[in-house]
Task: structure prediction
Amino acid sequence: MHAATIENSDLPVSGRLSEVNSSGVSWGAVIGGAFVAAALSLIMLALGAGFGLSAVSPWSNVGASAATIGAAAIVWLILTEAIASAMGGYLAGRLRIKWRSIHTDEVHFRDTANGFLVWAVAVVMTVAFLAAGAVSMVGGEPGAAATQGNTAEGYFVDRLFRSDHPITSDNDPFIRAEAARIFDYSVLQDEGSPADSAYLAQLVAAKTGLTPADAQKRVADTIADARQAEDAARKATSRLLLWIFVALLVGAFCASYAATIGGRQRDHVLAIS
Result:
């Protein structure tokens, strides 16, 4: 056996065997590092929101463009995950127990595993307990996506019945609710039902006073615009999820690698007798 196989061979055989068979996870250090990683993520998220990295001006000539803000926000997201995870992993490696009679390869593996666990626990903690606070920091509200979707649907339905000569009736809310359900179903289908489109055109013509041909054209144009808006939102969500995946992957690597650095420094600490 090489000299590097065992870091300290002056321990009794029973002590070395018990240490080899002991758990390779220092849960105290892992949980502490995960709390630090989650806290740093929130702090840096708040800092990024303070610098405006989570807001886009809707005006074309005011502030930074959407593309610039998007790139800066993505870079900040990756940087936040890397720094927070690296700090949590380093603390876990530095604060773990010292495995004095374990092969150096096994020590390296255990440090890497502990760092990876720090990252995993921090992600679960952030998603389970801190997600609402994180959304509030960047200026959003929990459930805002569903609310926005309902608002968009209501906008397109209102556009269907827009008229220069509005006609009111007692059953108007029921007509709009029925039209909203038909419209929503038509948007979700690649090719809407001709019967549904014709019925919507009849409702629009009766409500707005348009000719049947103009009402049919309005229905077709509105459904097409709604589908385009749905596709744009779906593509934006896909890009965001892709960058979140990249950021989390970087965080996992940084936490695992930083834990090995902290573990090496922990092993070099000499006890003062």
Remarks:
- Residues 146-229 form one domain.
